[in-house]
Specification:
Layout (H helix, E strand, L loop, with lengths): L2 H31 L6
Membrane topology: Single-pass membrane protein
Subcellular location: Cellular thylakoid membrane
Protein name: Photosystem II reaction center protein X
């Protein structure tokens, strides 16, 4: 594998760790905290 391809995969991994995981955790936290009250 070429170094630029490895850097591409590392950047995808870093983007996943920095953006996707915290956003998912935040959405789950908010959805559990702010439940809709149905009558």
């Amino acid at each position: 594998m070429t170094p630029s391809l490895m850097n591409f995969f590392y950047s995808l991994l870093a983007g996943t760790l920095i953006v996707v995981i915290p956003a998912t955790v935040g959405l789950i936290f908010i959805s559990q905290k702010d439940k809709i009250q149905r009558s």
